[in-house]
Amino acid sequence: MEDKIKRIKELIQIVNEAGKAYYQEDREIMSNYEYDALYDELAALEKETGVVFAGSPTQNVGYQVLSELPKEAHDRPMLSLNKTKSVDELREWLGDQKGLLSWKMDGLTVVLTYENGTLAKAVTRGNGEIGEVITNNAKMFVNVPLRIAYQGQLVLRGEAVIRYSDFERINEEIEDVDAKYKNPRNLCSGSVRQLNNEITARRSVRFYAFALVSAGDVEDAEFDNSREKQFQWLQSQGFETVEWKTVTAETISEAVHEFAEAVEGNDVPSDGLVLLYDDIAYGESLGRTAKFPRDSIAFKWADEIQETTLSYIEWSASRTGLINPVAVFEPVELEGTTVSRASVHNISIMESLELGVGDRITVYKANMIIPQIADNLTRSGVKDIPKICPVCGGGTEIRDMSGIKTLYCTNPDCQAKKIKSFTLFVSRDALNIDGLSEATLEKFISAGFIHEYSDMFHLDRHREAIVEMDGFGEKSYENLVAAARRASVTTLPRVIYGLGIAGIGLANAKMLCRHFHSDFETMRRASAEELTEVDGIGGVLAEAWTAFFASEKNNGIVDRLLAELTIETEPEEEGAKPFEGMTFVITGSVEHFANRKELQALIESKGGKATGSVTGKTTYLINNDTTSNSSKNKKAKELGIPILSEADFLNLLEEKERES
């Protein structure tokens, strides 16, 4: 008995640490499989011994929220769901009742409240008792109705999620997405719990309702005592609901099978299913336990597990310097597909599995999608952790952060760490190499295909390896090579901007080319004094330029790049230049233009310059919110610089064009 209680205490600490890492810090210190196994072991020991400690994760319904968002207590506690991996248990639980079987979505649970037909409040689940108020952010969700026909008070629950398709698009477009956004759930959590709802708006968050909590004066009788009728009523009010199927004990096996077949193609992240009694009164009459409601139960897929042999550990470097271990094993069939690789995440997980080359391991697909190692049957031990980075050959070191051991590259010039510079180089305003997304660049750099800019024009050297990569094939490879070929015919401002010299944006690059008549050799040998003669180039930018070209290594990189390019001379812009000699700063949202870049292009076409900071050289600040207390507005007022709305700007343009 004493040993079992000791084990209970150990499990509480391990499971709580893993839960805190996942829910609060958006990082993984163990696989879902391992977490579930430890949780189930803890629950079984508590049941066997009758000993349950207050801090046990079997008793807690969530983790305390830590952000600066306002907090609010829920009117009704939001409980976790009891779970099973057995279809027979689902059938037994349902009995002779009719049920609703739906996706268990993997996002962030949110409670919405409507007053007089208007969205009045949105609160996250938080710890089940107290959540965070995110009303302004919820108004940015793609599909949440701000107004509905029903005029009474309406309270409903649902899941905020980011679809896989949106996640992949966002991962390529958002500049600051880093390692912590490894899956849609983490990105959704970070997006929903923002202090700046402009960021939420850009993340394509969606809301799927899964429960009507209360609807003012609408009685259950008006829903025919049916949860399904509640779902249909919510749909009539404009809400998207979770996808569901009506089931009985006779049909539930077939329904679970249909959901299982749909998992791989499902665009909404899920981690199982939920079974809910359709009969409202019956479900509510069952009450609740300390942690679980009794009117619903969660189903987690019984993982298909295959045994195989670990062939080797592949070490993949990332932009943060972190070198991630990936297990490569003899191919096996899992959930209808062939898999041969699984992320191990960090050295601590490798050590917990005692993972060594040649070991017999069992593998599965978490949530039937993501390959992971379930167990190591032979446990030969961790060895051969690389002393050098697989990308740059620089030294590595093992770092222990909060008890998690990870491998890092110590070379500050490692190409993998410079992913942002390569991403800028291929971006639309620079070389515009279509298909070389940030994710693709990271793969190619990790594989050693790209060390510097010129390598992007020689991907043909790695054809065989590229066509075998996950997500690639002959067609993708041909498209990439063709895109690089097209991009090799370009203009000098695009090349200069693509080099990523600190502070030298596309507008500055154009000004430099104009001043030096596109003579690049003269340009790169220019002194700081010569550079500051260029409109918009001050001492800081001149220093950044000269420092870049003082490096023999940088000049070599540029020379090898230029050898791959055909530089076309841009024709001198004709027509009136009413903004000649004027410098504009644009801030805030725009209404008359598609985006700020379009407004910037217009300014430049009229001879003006658009910069990012308000200085003594700024002629006008453009901000539709002319009375705001933003830092740019304050600076402009201090310097006596006029603040124009878009309408003011367009009037100024019309006036200047009349004058010229």
Q: How would you describe this protein?
A:
By secondary structure, the chain is α+β, with helices and mostly antiparallel strands. The protein folds into 6 domains: 2-49, Orthogonal Bundle (Helix Hairpins), CATH 1.10.287; 71-299, 2-Layer Sandwich (D-amino Acid Aminotransferase, Chain A, domain 1), CATH 3.30.470; 306-409, OB fold (Dihydrolipoamide Acetyltransferase, E2P), CATH 2.40.50; 415-487, DNA polymerase, domain 1 (Orthogonal Bundle), CATH 1.10.150.20; 491-568, DNA polymerase, domain 1; 583-659, 3-Layer(aba) Sandwich (Rossmann fold), CATH 3.40.50.10190. 35% of the residues lie in helices and 21% in strands. The strands form 6 sheets. Strands 12, 13, 14, 15, 16, 17 and 18 form a 7-stranded antiparallel β-sheet that branches. The protein has a 5-stranded mixed β-sheet with strand order 2-11-10-3-9. Strands 5-4-7-8 form a 4-stranded antiparallel β-sheet. Helix 16 crosses helix 17. The longest helix has 22 residues, at 2-23. The radius of gyration is 29 Å and the shape is globular. It starts with a helix and ends with a helix. Mean pLDDT is 83; it is low at 61-67 and 174-180.
